[in-house]
């Protein structure tokens, strides 16, 4: 099985002020994507700025000295570009997808927003109401609610446990000047990554980034770290009573941080455990026991912590059974080697998914930005696939024994009744 044929290469240039420009050239593609990442986000917020990173993400679209909010939207629209942004615990990412030929014009607008947005007072008040509604929406959506509660519970006492949206109280009270101070102290050149994927020239993007982002302040953002000896809050469970038709739950196990030596083995492990219709969770929880319509596993990885998370939705009277079965499937990896047929199929699923994703420039621009931040350089697709291909059944079993033997996960659930407890 060849893994590297026709896979695009990546390039990185670090500008004198510390901005990193990474690219993945994909010749022949009509589309391309460009992004600007701020590597300081929710986990670094002081108490009086809870939710500021996400609030500012909204406000960067609301005007600069040379473009009003309407002009920003109209300019993207007039050149056929689709712009968006998101905030996570460790990053704020602004990006746009467009025809490759207009990526330079698209990047000019993004760069103006990133550097020069001045958070107009009127727009702050309008967007404050929008963010408050977003907080309520997350509270009213059970799957989002329990994801957020699990995240805060698993990482309690850690900066990663800070809610991305903030709270109604913090968003309701933070003022425009404080938001501007926070932006100026965190949107720094050393924390900025420009990424581009598609049929775009690297050197041209380097020149444009140097010209348009040169006014970014220098310095290093203040990084909040957990107390020495911090551990994730596993071996605990919590249930939130709501009148729902299902009980939804997350259960989670600690993993080494992003970039760890086991990451490729864990990718294979996660594929077999809970990714797709051929996964063990799908077959056992859904197909054999009819416990759930939706069940899957995922890995959430950060610079200094990570988790394996399992999600399922089931009936209240069978929620404990579902938790027990999911945990048993994790421990099964510790007890037996996966078959060579299952291992080969999992590797092929990963390989196919990553190669097909090369056709999606938006996915690629996020990927190379993320790997640059977490690994120090963009990871070529071919290199990651070579590492996946080298994983053995013995290594999957050994990493499971190392990380999951004797571990009792955290369980958080929402629904009627008392909810499930810890796995039995």
TrEMBL record:
Domain Peptidase M16 C-terminal, residue spans: 173-349
Record-linked Pfam families: Peptidase_M16, Peptidase_M16_C
Domain Peptidase M16 N-terminal as annotated: residue spans: 20-167
Highest taxon above the source species: Bacteria
InterPro entries: Metalloenz_LuxS/M16 (IPR011249), MPP/UQCRC_Complex (IPR050361), Pept_M16_N (IPR011765), Peptidase_M16_C (IPR007863)
Protein family (similarity comment): Belongs to the peptidase M16 family.
Protein known as: Peptidase M16
Organism: Geoanaerobacter pelophilus
């Amino acid at each position: 099985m060849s893994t590297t044929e026709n896979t695009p290469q990546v390039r990185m240039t670090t500008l004198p002020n510390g901005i990193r420009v990474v690219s993945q050239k994909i010749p022949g593609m009509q589309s391309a994507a460009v992004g600007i990442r701020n590597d300081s986000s929710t986990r670094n917020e002081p108490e009086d700025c809870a939710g500021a990173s996400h609030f500012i993400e909204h406000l960067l679209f609301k005007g600069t000295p040379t473009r009003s909010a309407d002009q920003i939207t109209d300019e993207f629209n007039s050149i056929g570009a689709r712009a968006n942004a998101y905030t996570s615990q460790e990053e704020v990412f602004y990006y746009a997808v467009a025809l490759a030929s207009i990526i330079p014009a698209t990047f000019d607008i993004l760069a103006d927003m990133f550097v020069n947005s001045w958070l107009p007072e009127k727009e702050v008040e309008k967007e404050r109401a929008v963010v408050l509604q977003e907080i309520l929406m997350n509270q009213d959506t059970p799957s989002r609610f329990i994801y957020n509660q699990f995240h805060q519970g698993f990482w309690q006492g850690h900066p990663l446990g800070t809610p991305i949206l903030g709270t109604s109280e913090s968003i309701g009270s933070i003022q425009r000047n404080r938001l501007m101070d926070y932006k100026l102290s965190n949107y720094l050149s050393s924390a900025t990554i420009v990424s581009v994927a598609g049929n775009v020239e690297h050197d041209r993007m380097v020149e444009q980034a140097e010209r348009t982002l040169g006014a970014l302040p220098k310095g290093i953002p203040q990084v909040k770290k957990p107390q020495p000896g911090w551990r994730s809050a596993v071996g605990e469970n919590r249930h939130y009573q709501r009148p729902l038709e299902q009980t939804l739950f997350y259960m989670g196990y600690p993993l080494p941080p992003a970039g760890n030596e086991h990451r490729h083995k864990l990718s294979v492990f996660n594929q077999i455990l809970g990714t797709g219709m051929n996964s063990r969770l799908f077959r056992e929880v859904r197909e054999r026991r009819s416990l759930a319509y939706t069940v899957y596993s995922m890995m959430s990885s950060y610079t200094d912590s990570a988790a394996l998370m399992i999600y399922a939705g089931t009936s209240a009277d069978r929620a404990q059974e579902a938790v027990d079965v999911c945990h048993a499937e994790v421990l099964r990896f510790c007890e037996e080697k996966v078959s060579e047929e299952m291992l080969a199929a999992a590797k092929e699923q990963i390989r196919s998914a990553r190669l097909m994703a090369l056709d999606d420039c938006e996915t690629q621009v996020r990927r190379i930005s993320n790997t640059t931040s977490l690994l120090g350089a963009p990871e070529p697709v071919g290199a990651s696939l070579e590492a996946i291909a080298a994983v053995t059944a013995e290594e999957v079993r050994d990493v499971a024994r190392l990380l999951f033997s004797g571990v009792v996960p955290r369980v958080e659930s929402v629904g009627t009744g008392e909810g499930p407890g810890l796995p039995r």
